[in-house]
């Protein structure tokens, strides 16, 4: 396969990450308007905000196990087709229940995508470049959210304008599906696939791999509580904390999210130089510190930042720092390290379990912020986010090894090789 074809494959696969993050941000832009026009209760708002994450949990589990049995390529085609159909259904929703159900279907497709994209990239890309290329893919995800916020800001004040960002996701699917029809199957999977579902379960049950998956799942959950919670509620925070209008809140969200673009470039530059573990550790620590300080500040002034203009700048800086810290570290590394640490036969299944835990974290974040902010104000919700990021710091410090030098490998019964010292798998075919 020539260099041009190699790059097209990487772009076609990585584009799914862009669209998945675009979709999560699209509903966050629409949320304040939907709450306003349909008079949505706090409980229903929490259900709408978490509906996509419920779908992602299910989609990741189904797709991950299926990808280890039927292959990566088929899942990467089917999930995008389902996403496009569900995006249209979301955009034409006549009522709240329709919107919630269609958002669950959208989430199912996005969850399936994330469960398979990174195992595929780990197997397709050489060890020397995989960290940098996967970081590039996740860097593009920041533009997905930024694009959704910007499109929402431009359309939200038009009649039915909140539907436009939801519908636009379906348009994005068309060129990606066209490119993906040329995707090759993963040669790593074809050479070392599990022979049955029972084999997948058997390998996952090996204590070594069970422990890796458990730690990865908990770390991913601890990050996604704050990350998905902030993503869903960022425009709403500007409305409730800073007292801005709905359209201005979308523009402010664009500004805050834009900070993650250069921050994530640091990851691209450093991930194969300093490794995954230091970036994840400092990213978790920075997010925890910023959110805990911001939450404490808002509790101290009872969340009414409008009466303390001298503190508005401080609140902005802390919010930006929280986003930047996540973008530099765990936003990328929690996704990458799981796929790097597992044998080929169960790589997608393990990624699916960890991702599903992360989506559970998103649900916990949405519900936790909704109810804590309703009881004690937004400061309480942000302290909750910060506490979960602090837990991620502890888990990373205690359990995460460096993964950049781990070679792709296949499971060997009774193998005594330790992680980081495994022998490369002998290929039955050359890498394209």
UniProtKB/TrEMBL annotation:
<dbReference type="InterPro" id="IPR005829">
    <property type="entry name" value="Sugar_transporter_CS"/>
</dbReference>
<dbReference type="GO" id="GO:0005886">
    <property type="term" value="C:plasma membrane"/>
</dbReference>
<feature type="transmembrane region" description="Helical">
    <location>
        <begin position="98"/>
        <end position="121"/>
    </location>
</feature>
<feature type="transmembrane region" description="Helical">
    <location>
        <begin position="9"/>
        <end position="31"/>
    </location>
</feature>
<feature type="transmembrane region" description="Helical">
    <location>
        <begin position="254"/>
        <end position="272"/>
    </location>
</feature>
<dbReference type="InterPro" id="IPR036259">
    <property type="entry name" value="MFS_trans_sf"/>
</dbReference>
<protein>
    <submittedName>
        <fullName>Predicted arabinose efflux permease, MFS family</fullName>
    </submittedName>
</protein>
<feature type="transmembrane region" description="Helical">
    <location>
        <begin position="46"/>
        <end position="67"/>
    </location>
</feature>
<dbReference type="Pfam" id="PF00083">
    <property type="entry name" value="Sugar_tr"/>
</dbReference>
<dbReference type="GO" id="GO:0046943">
    <property type="term" value="F:carboxylic acid transmembrane transporter activity"/>
</dbReference>
<keyword id="KW-0812">Transmembrane</keyword>
<feature type="transmembrane region" description="Helical">
    <location>
        <begin position="162"/>
        <end position="179"/>
    </location>
</feature>
<feature type="domain" description="Major facilitator superfamily (MFS) profile">
    <location>
        <begin position="9"/>
        <end position="404"/>
    </location>
</feature>
<feature type="transmembrane region" description="Helical">
    <location>
        <begin position="311"/>
        <end position="329"/>
    </location>
</feature>
<dbReference type="InterPro" id="IPR020846">
    <property type="entry name" value="MFS_dom"/>
</dbReference>
<feature type="transmembrane region" description="Helical">
    <location>
        <begin position="382"/>
        <end position="400"/>
    </location>
</feature>
<dbReference type="InterPro" id="IPR005828">
    <property type="entry name" value="MFS_sugar_transport-like"/>
</dbReference>
<feature type="transmembrane region" description="Helical">
    <location>
        <begin position="133"/>
        <end position="156"/>
    </location>
</feature>
<keyword id="KW-0472">Membrane</keyword>
<keyword id="KW-1133">Transmembrane helix</keyword>
<feature type="transmembrane region" description="Helical">
    <location>
        <begin position="74"/>
        <end position="92"/>
    </location>
</feature>
<feature type="transmembrane region" description="Helical">
    <location>
        <begin position="284"/>
        <end position="305"/>
    </location>
</feature>
<keyword id="KW-0813">Transport</keyword>
């Amino acid at each position: 396969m020539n260099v041009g074809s190699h790059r097209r494959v990487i772009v076609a696969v990585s584009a799914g990450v862009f669209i998945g993050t675009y979709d999560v941000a699209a509903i966050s832009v629409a949320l304040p308007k939907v709450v306003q026009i349909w008079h949505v209760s706090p409980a229903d708002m929490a259900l709408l905000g978490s509906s996509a994450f419920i779908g992602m949990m299910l989609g990741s589990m189904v797709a991950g196990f299926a990808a280890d049995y039927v292959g990566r390529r088929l899942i990467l085609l089917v999930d995008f087709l389902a996403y496009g159909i569900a995006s249209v259904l979301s955009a034409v929703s006549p009522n709240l229940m329709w919107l919630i159900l269609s958002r669950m279907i959208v989430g199912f497709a996005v969850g399936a995508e994330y469960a398979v994209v990174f195992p595929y990239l780990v197997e397709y890309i050489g060890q020397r470049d995989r960290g940098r290329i996967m970081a590039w893919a996740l860097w593009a995800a920041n533009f997905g959210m930024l694009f959704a916020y910007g499109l929402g800001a431009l359309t939200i004040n038009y009649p039915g304008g909140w539907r436009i960002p939801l519908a636009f996701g379906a348009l994005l699917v068309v060129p990606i599906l066209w490119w993906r029809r040329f995707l090759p199957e993963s040669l790593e999977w074809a050479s070392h696939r599990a022979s049955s579902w029972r084999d997948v379960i058997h390998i996952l049950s090996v204590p070594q791999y069970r422990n890796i998956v458990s730690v990865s799942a908990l770390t991913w959950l601890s990050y996604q509580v704050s990350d998905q919670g902030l993503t869903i509620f960022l425009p709403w925070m500007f409305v409730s904390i800073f007292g801005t209008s709905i359209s201005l809140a979308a523009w402010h969200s664009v500004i805050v999210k834009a900070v993650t673009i250069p921050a994530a470039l640091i990851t691209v530059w450093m991930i194969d130089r300093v490794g995954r573990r230091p970036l994840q550790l400092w990213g978790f620590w920075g997010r925890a510190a910023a959110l805990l300080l911001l939450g404490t500040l808002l509790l101290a002034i009872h969340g009414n930042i409008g009466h303390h203009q001298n503190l508005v700048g401080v609140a902005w800086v802390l919010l930006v720092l929280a986003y930047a810290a996540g973008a530099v570290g765990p936003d990328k590394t929690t996704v990458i390290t799981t796929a790097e640490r597992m044998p080929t036969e169960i790589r997608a299944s393990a990624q699916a379990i960890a991702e599903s835990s992360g989506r559970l974290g998103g649900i916990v974040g949405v519900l936790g912020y909704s109810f804590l902010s309703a009881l004690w104000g937004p400061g309480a919700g942000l302290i909750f986010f910060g506490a979960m990021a602090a837990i991620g710091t502890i888990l990373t410090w205690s359990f995460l090894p460096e993964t950049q030098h781990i070679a792709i490998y296949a499971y060997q019964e009774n193998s005594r090789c330790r992680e980081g010292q495994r022998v490369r798998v002998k290929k039955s075919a050359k890498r394209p």
